[in-house]
Amino acid sequence: MAPNASKLRLLDLPYLPLIEVLYHLSPFELFSINCKYLNKIIKSFGPMISAQYKLSMEFTSIRRISFESEYKSYPCRWGAKASELAHFQGILKMHKKILETWGPMKTKAVFDLGIDKECSKMMFDWAQKYKDSIEEVRLEDMTNSEELLEFMEFFKNCDTMHIDAGDGFRCDIELNNRFLKIENGKWVTVENLFNFHCEMIMVSSPLSLQNKEIAQFLKQWKTREKINSKLVCLSFEKGSLDINKILLGFDHFVMEVPNYISPVRGILMDGNDEKRVYIVEKISDGKPIICIMFN
To answer: What region holds the Sdz-33 F-box domain (predicted)?
Structure first.
């Protein structure tokens, strides 16, 4: 543009080109516009914003609100402040302004419960207020505090729950989520698996479950005794389980899958495939993955 050329303001655009320009701005770019006329138009974008994006609230050291879609994420982060509580209060003010502008939105919430008691209380108060809009929750707490149990109980019927707890965590809560993912499976017992009445369950390694316990769970899962989950995936580390002992008493066969490239060792119980179970184990010395399946 030439040095003396005049700049074209948004307000100088005809209505239809103006709408087209606004439509291609990110949610936070729209949110930063301070003009009464434009804000009236932007407010009308509420149904479009709610349909395209999920709001992600991160009450962690990251301190972030994001608009997330299937393909994009638009984050807003906070700089240094005096305390974590001050950070989270800033997040709540921003959340309130977003809802005032565009109305209720589907929300994912991430909570780090090991920060301090005052922050945990503030998070829980917020969760109670917006429970109906929270579809996905992630709970992080390596200290295994009482707050973690409180949050798990509160969100036990949420659509999706992720749990990242320490090795010594203990829990007897019955969960009814559609999808449950546990990042550290070391604390998970077979009793926990029986109490997780979830459509899909994923437990990441390491596992503390023994061969006999897994065989017991597989048997009851196949007969629908106590367990109604359609899909269960248990990842395990090399040498932590003896697949031959687990398979004792089950009809099975072995099939080599030379092109299987996943590094994961795991047990997959698939209720959508005639209740078939797949055990994937990587063989040493560069040999291919072997997939063991039984009905």
So the answer is: 175-235
